[in-house]
Fold this protein.
Amino acid sequence: MKFIKKLTNRLDTLNSHVCVGLDSRYDRIPEFIKKGKTVSEAIFSFNKELIAATHHVAVAYKTTLTFYNAFGDEGREGLRKTNHYLKANYPEIPLLADYKTSDMGESAKMMKKDIFDGLLFDCIMMTPWFGEDTIKEFLKDDACGVAIYVHDTNPTASEFQDIELKDGRRLYEAVAEKVAKSWNNNGNIFVEAGATYPTQLQRTREIVGEDMVILTVGIGPQGGDIKNLRGLFGKNGKRLLVNGSRSIIFAGEGKKDYFQGVKDAAEQFRQDLSAIAELAI
Amino acid sequence: MKFIKKLTNRLDTLNSHVCVGLDSRYDRIPEFIKKGKTVSEAIFSFNKELIAATHHVAVAYKTTLTFYNAFGDEGREGLRKTNHYLKANYPEIPLLADYKTSDMGESAKMMKKDIFDGLLFDCIMMTPWFGEDTIKEFLKDDACGVAIYVHDTNPTASEFQDIELKDGRRLYEAVAEKVAKSWNNNGNIFVEAGATYPTQLQRTREIVGEDMVILTVGIGPQGGDIKNLRGLFGKNGKRLLVNGSRSIIFAGEGKKDYFQGVKDAAEQFRQDLSAIAELAI
């Protein structure tokens, strides 16, 4: 199945906009899970519980690879087991590799082997720095999705992304236009824009149009305000995917029932997002 | 020791400009090495032979991580063994992680753990897309180097890197200026600019000055002409590092003695580069 079909099917049918960030760094996994387990077992066990608590509201799972790589082969083993488990049990949920990378040619072929064939992701998130060569290798295959970081959430994202071009556009606008108008040959590409820069997020929606999926991140701990998402949900209010990582997966900290806390946080996030999505512009 | 001191010591004393790209993709390792070995053993064995054949001309080793990640845990195990071997036997040679990535905050801390603590690299190569947040975490530690991709070698590198800004500069010039004038607080940062865009490489040298190390790639198989490096070697002709990957490590293919072929190619590359370095501008 085409990646984008898988993603939009899920957005169209689930009545949710939640992307769950499975950033399960081992050092923050609760002790009662870790006890008596290897690192990879603990990660896998934690993730299975997170999935049980969130799969009914998760349009997609997004995984920041560095959080697993940091724990070496054990970390990657935990990630691999998690993705195999997801494919076996929830094949309808797209898996996004938050990799913040960019590669081309032979290296891109190797990356495809690692991320899609080895780790079973459905989509890779990439910086646009090296241009179209970055995405070609992935988009040849209909089942592979690519998300381009158009404007990120971090304090210095503006340094280059907001730089003014000769023709009056900002750089992120040029990137968004390139994605929407030149790179989107088979529909398997979409964009990421952070909620901590609401003006740029809004402008990104204007540029890519109502049909393209936007993934936004940075609501909550990073300072993005959910109210800023009003009017940005795209066609039928179903083309915005909103990530929650720490605010969901660690929501059980200090609670009597850890994973009930996770479930409550995910459901509350869904509800809050649906309320905003239903508001007129 | 400060990373940059380690790198410039080596450039000052070795009488070489060669950076050897240890891009030892398993599928291209010769059969006589692979025979009877696991993937990680074959990679490690191949790399040890490459190191024996090149360490006397290698200012640094640069490793494209995707070529190892593509072969899963075995690939990374081969890489880890290689870097441990290099640290034990050739601690004076800097190890560069060609990662084409960019991360910040907690993810950057995790990446540091993976790349510097786990895999023993001395330097990480990063895209500038997310701004200064990308490099902060690494440059806090004096022993960590960062190289920023200012202008790459690939055909579509121009798409964004050469885009014209309101103030008349090109984007890659703005990045090079940012690196040289704002980000270089403790001297542990340098730049990468590809030899397939000679004008931009020359302009990069003008911007960063004679003292900063430039790493250039793309000579040979990718189409960069060694003659274009004339005049770009920096202070005392010792601030340019020129990468050779495939043209060195696979130079033994079809030869009677594979690693003699590798050694010959590395030494020829050193000689060719030295001849250009010694020419007046």
Notes: Chain B has twelve helices and eight strands. Chain B touches chain A through 52 residues (CB under 8 Å).
